[in-house]
Amino acid sequence: MEDYNIDQKIQDFIAQVEAKNPNEPEFLQAVKEVAITVIPFIESRKDYQGMKLLERMVEAERIIIFRVPWVDDKGEIHVNRGFRIQMNSAIGPYKGGIRFHPTVNLSVLKFLAFEQVFKNSLTTLPMGGGKGGSDFDPQGKSDMEVMRFCQAFMTELCKHIGPETDVPAGDIGVGAREIGYLFGQYKKVRNEFSGVLTGKGLAYGGSLIRPEATGYGVVYFCEQMLSTINEKIEGKVFAVSGFGNVAWGVIKKVNELGGKVVTISGPDGFIYDETGISGEKVDYLLELRSSGNNRAEDYIKKYPEAKFFAGRRPWEIKCDVAIPAATQNELDLEDAEKLVKNGLICITEAANMPSNLDAINYFLENKVLFSPGKASNAGGVATSGLEMTQNSIRLNWTSEEVDARLKEIMVGIHKACRNYGKEEDGYVNYVKGANIAGFVKVAEAMLAQGVV
Ligand code: 2IT
């Protein structure tokens, strides 16, 4: 009877969110995953009941949508749409990346901002959740076009952010170059040199290890997951998707710890390199990326011993560990079935929400180690938090110091997930663990601060 009531409560809650946010499938997907695990927890806590905590958390504190007009090299005028979702500031200033990609829309950014709230809470650092971006596509644009776009974007955004208010960073399509242009424009318009953005260059307040942090953190987390079944990275075969900043960090660290990465992917298909992607091949990934050409196929031009599979995903390759590091919904039920059939023991998400709900359920049912991105990729934003600290104390830490803190944070997140996610048979449901552990800190802060 009690279970029936809780199921009904979950269904009612999801129906309400759906009615209020129609045509936002990604946002609804992220909310569903949280609701299923967090509502039963809320029901078990007397002090949380009737406080409408989750109802408040699915409503952004503020959403800013703005016009971004800019002029290309030929003198033609373009109009893009800019967004900043200020989701939750209960535990700190809004914090989260900016994404420039043609697929950016309100639903995508709301899902990312919602997940960011839980992720940032898990880091234990004082950061609220936010996300922003634009449907602008940096692919194929000149440096000067990207600069003018970034300036136009920041001319509006700078009215709404600040080091104590909202601190954006990079995400897909926003790397060191874009952060530099965005920072320059913020400084010029606000006449203020501050830690308003993270992922900055080392010359103007950036942190060592920030570029590698997301990928390194994922592998540290994966190491922890494997240790629960007395396994280690060394000797394991890894299938990785994507070939951007996150995949690059993952591949570097897996190699360092003695694992072998055999795949990468782009929007055009995937590369299978049986000999392992290591050494100079990892450097070549950086070159491929900075060429502005988003094609994985170019890899076989330099390394013809590898194979390219057009229009396919790496999940058909036999591997011990899968690390999706490209984008949302890049791994569905069919992919999950193939991976498990091929003997997968662990999947550590590096992208945000790369597995859809059916795939996640399949991994959990089959008791494969599975960690959601909001737990395992939190090392990126955690190191952004460390960049904020360094900016505040006006000192720079060594890479050893930042890396040690990053590792400590990832071990801590793993522990928190286990704490709330361990089931009777010893299997850790990291989805449940991450959602509840992330929720608790935000909920406590919201309760303390009253209905605001
Ligand atoms: O998804 C993410 O956590 C990020 N894009 C990084 C956010 C940040 O503020 O460093």
Overall tally of structural domains:
3
Proportion of beta-strand residues: 5-15%
Please report the first level of CATH classification, the CATH class of the largest domain: Alpha Beta
Shape: globular
Q: What would you say the CATH architecture of the largest domain is?
A: 3-Layer(aba) Sandwich
Q: How is the largest sheet built, in terms of strand order?
A: 9-8-7-6-10-11-12
Distance between the termini: 35 Å
Q: Output mean pLDDT.
A: 97
Structural class: alpha/beta
CATH homologous superfamily label of the largest domain? NAD(P)-binding Rossmann-like Domain
Give an overview in words.
- 48% of the residues lie in helices and 15% in strands.
- It is α/β, with parallel strands linked by helices and 452 residues long.
- The chain has three domains: 2-54; 62-192, Rossmann fold; 211-371, 3-Layer(aba) Sandwich (Rossmann fold).
- The chain has a seven-stranded mixed beta sheet, with helices on both faces. A five-stranded mixed beta sheet has the order 1-2-4-3-5.
- It is globular.
- (2Z)-2-iminopentanedioic acid binds next to strand 3 and helix 14.
